[in-house]
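To: structure desk
From: M.T.
Subject: fold request, one chain
Message: Could you run this one when you get a chance? Sequence is below, nothing fancy, just the single chain.
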Amino acid sequence: MDHGKKLAEETLLPSALEDDDAEKEGEMLQLGEPTMSLTEVDVRGPKDQRSSPDRNVLDRGEREGEAEEDEAEEDDEEEAEECVISDEDYDTDLELGEKVEEYDPTGQTSYMKACGGLQVVPASYFLQHAQDSELSMIHRGLGPQGTKALAVPLVTNTSILRLNLRDNWMEGMGGAAIAQMLKENCYITEVNLSDNRIGDDGAKAMAGILKESSSLVSLNLSGNHFTDGAAECLGAALITNTKLRCLDLSYNALGERAGQTLGDALSENTGLRSLNLAWNCIRGRGAVMLVNGLGGNIFLRTMDLSDNGLGKEGAVALGRALKENNILEELNVSNNRIPPEGAIHLAMGLKVNKTIKSLNMGRNPIQSAGCYGILQSVQENPDSAMEKLDFSDIAVTQDFEELYTIVKEILPVLTVNHGGRVGTFRKAKA
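Reply: Done. Structure tokens follow.
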């Protein structure tokens, strides 16, 4: 029974309370007082109240309306901002986090980096002349490492056309670095690497560029301790190369085998105009094979074979070559141990040759008889183009001087140098 009574109270109590509240609200309305529901008093606190500009308190409903308006305005502003989009809102390939370096056609920047990596002191001369058309760094003591560092900027350098690195002791490593650079650089046309001791390894590297390079026209490899092995590499390259015009292999240690190799290359080469093989050890059969190659060449204009060992056999072969070759204009065979008999055989070729303008036979033991025979062959050749004969350090007789007087009338431009007349101490120049 108590339970039923309690349930009735719980059921009737809310309705009774609502009736009491309604009566109170009616009384308050009659008195003109503002009313507020019990639930609103329980839920709203100070934070839910907001003053209007006229200092009246705004309830939650009014404030929610204003909030919705503010949110709408903010959305409109965001949409307007999204319509105006700057380049900063996009990620491009240029925004890599690193500054793009400017292209340096002189290679000065890369040279400094290479010197730092190889721990060598930069050559200030290169930094000052990197934009010149000719870079001449002679006797600078670059060494192998310094040469490697210098090769780095030369790969991209577009100003330098002629490169002279004579006497820098670069050895095989430095020579290989320069060769690798020349494979990439198509602007440098003349290179001087003389007196650098690059050896056969360096020669092999240079032969590689001669097979590939299409821009190199002049190459000086004098004084680099080349042996017959170097000649094999270079000879094979000369057979295929058609661009190189001048090659200097003087002051090396090229022997008989080198003469054979270069003779074969010379007979097939179509590009060379000048070849210098002075101060080597080409003699015997090697000398004969080399000269035979000269006979088959129809492009070479100048050849220097001075200070070798041609001897009589080489001079005989040279006389035959001069009969066949009508292109060669300058020939130097001084100091080659050519005897008088060899000079006479050489003179036989001069009787029919139409292109030789300068012949140097100085410091050979040909005596006055050999000099006389050569001058007489010029006299007997109506088509001779001879302009200069050099018999330095060879004494001549009175007969030779008289013959020269006669030939001078036929060829007014001809000049002859000799070691003076036999029996006098006066050195004469005719």
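Reply (cont.): The chain is about 50% helix and 10% strand. Let me know if you need anything else for the meeting.
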